[in-house]
Amino acid sequence: MKKSLIVFLSLLLVAFACCKKNDIIDGSGNEPSAVSNPLCFTAEEDSITIGMKRYGYGELNPIPNIEYSYDMVVWRTFTAESTVITLENTGDKVYIRGDNPLGLNVNLEENNSFIRFETNDKKTAVSGNLMSLIDPTCRLRKVPDYCFCDLFNGARITTPPELPATTLGKRCYGGLFSCCTELRTAPELPATKLAEECYVSMFLYCTSLKVAPKLPATTLAADCYADMFDSSGILEAPELPATTLAEGCYSAMFANCNYITEAPELPATTLAAWCYSSMFDGCDQLLRAPQLPATTLAEYCYYYMFDGCRSLTITPALPAKTLNDYCYNNMFNDCINLTTVVELPATTVAKNCYERMFFNCINLRNAPESLPATTLAESCYQEMFYRCSQLESAPELPATSLVSRCYLSMFKDCSSLKSLKVHLTNWGDDYDTAFWLANVSSDGVFYCPSSLPQEYGIDRIPYWWEVYTF
Question: Residue 375 and which of 127, 161, 269, 346 are 20 to 30 A apart at CA?
Answer without folding.
Answer: 269
